[in-house]
Amino acid sequence: MLLIVVVRREGLPPRAAWPGIATSGVLWFGVYMVALNWGEREVDAGTAAMVVNVGPIVIALLSGWLLREGFPQRLLAGMAVSFAGAVVVGISVSDGGRSSILGVLLCLLAALSYGCGVVAQKPALRHASALQVTAYGCLIGAVVCLPFSGTLLEQVAEAPTSATLQMLYLGVFPTAIAFTTWAYALARTTAGKMGSTTYVAPALVVLMSWAVLGEVPGWLTLAGGALCLAGVAVSRSRRRAPAPELVRVGD
Fold it and tell me: Under 8 Å CB-to-CB from 121, ≥6 apart: which residues?
């Protein structure tokens, strides 16, 4: 990403953007990534999905308070519906409760750091481009994760090639590309509404696992995915302006 920044000659972000970049880099690209991956080693995928999906709610509450975005009723209602859908999907894919208090707390920490990171990133995008905010945020996250570099080198030497390629894939596509496009979109909408769109993810996972992995979803999983999509539709909808009153000539 830094190479792309150099090629595009975007340079360093303005000074005003650095507090938001640094905060989101530490919390989102650092703490969130480690806490989420660690938590998913301690709990089943369903439990992790349910707990981490508290993140968009944290975004809505913090952005309404700190960023003065308010608390639109449609947004809150839509997020409630989507969160219910995420819970349903999580229950449907849970393996029966293989979880620990540590794992749940780590997933909760991931959700909180994710929400705080997004709210910190929003003001930075007023002064810097999406590429700058994401690239330097990733750099700061990498610095935060340096204490794990020794373990990384040891495990890469022992890991199968497929695992290393999967890790590189996660770095390029779900991180570099996805987070840059996220920042681009976040700069053009409110943090609350942007956070609500992440509830599309559980529905997409259900469909992609069905198409790519041949994992046929059950009716409960499909119902939860439909709830997620319905909630996003509600949260992103706009209230129609009242129709102008007709005034008869002579009144």
Answer: 20, 21, 23, 24, 28, 133, 137, 183, 186
For 3, residues 6+ apart whose C-beta sits below 8 A from its C-beta are none
Please, what is the average pLDDT of the chain? 87
| Contacts for 149 with CB less than 8 Å, ≥ 6 apart | none
Q: Retrieve residue 251's tokens.
A: 């009144």
Q: How far is CA 231 from CA 89, 156, 201, 221, in A?
A: 14, 41, 12, 15
CA distances from 28 to 24, 40, 116, 147, 239 (A): 5, 16, 8, 17, 32
Report pTM: 0.83
How wide is the angle at C-alpha 140 spanned by C-alphas 172 and 10, nearest 5°? 70
Amino acid 235 reads S
Q: What is the DSSP letter of 99?
A: -
How confident is the model over 38-71, as pLDDT tens digits? 998 888 777 787 888 889 999 999 999 999 898 8
Distance CA 67, CA 215 (A): 41
